[in-house]
Amino acid sequence: MEELLLCIKYIVLGVSLAAPVGPINIEMIRRGIHQGFYSSWFVGLGGMTADLVFLILIFLGIAPLLQIKLVQVLLYALGFVLLTYLGVSSIVTGLKNKAIGIDDREEIDNRSFLSGFMIAAFNPINIVFWFGIYGSSLHQISSGHSTLFIFACSLSILVGIFLWNLNLAFTIYFSKQMLKSSWLKWITIGAGILLIVYAVDFARRLFVAFI
At residue 48, does pLDDT exceed 90? Predict the structure, then answer.
């Protein structure tokens, strides 16, 4: 019973990690409005894949590598470039009010997954969670539990993230049907601006890292 409650606790932790408004959620909203449910969901799946990679790295003991200053600077730089590109693209799409054709769906889905993966992989804040907060939590439950159970707790976090992403993708899909075209346009532009705000924050952190 104690083990089950612990797994539920980590599922809730996964939802708590995914729920706050951040680059992944904003990109899911943007893709969901213009490209549909699957593109939005694929962004979340891409982010989850990056989280799974981080989880495996922690189990392999490679966490200290990401504490190197040069690696952190590189992550901030790549994150800044990626979020700026996505933000500008979103604003341009909103201003043009461009409709996405159904023939582009497969290509769009592939790009959505890659975007989600890269946003999560190059987000130092995400890395801080996995190698900081999660690493500490892992240390707390390591005593008295098997490696298999510890891995199950880790996967429970991903289950929580998965449930939130699925919920968000469905919410965007059904909400889109009730919104006017002009509202969707301004939501897209607003999402682009927020992505650029996050990019500027990455640039600030990059500057601080150099000092």
Answer: yes
Task: Return the higher-pLDDT residue of 21 and 54.
Answer: 54
At residue 50, the pLDDT reads 92
Q: Which residues contact 189 (CB under 8 A, 6 or more apart)?
A: 90, 91, 94, 95
Structural domains of the chain, count: 1
Tell me the C-alpha distance between 81 and 188, whole Å: 19
Domain that holds residue 204: 2-210
- Cβ-contact 87, 199 below 8 angstroms: yes
Q: What is the pTM of this model?
A: 0.75
Rounded Cα distance between 167 and 174, Å, is: 11
Query: Are the C-beta atoms of residues 76 and 205 closer than 8 Å to each other?
Result: yes
Phi, psi angle pair for 47, to nearest 5°: -65, -40
* Closest C-alpha among 42, 31, 48, 45 to residue 172: 31
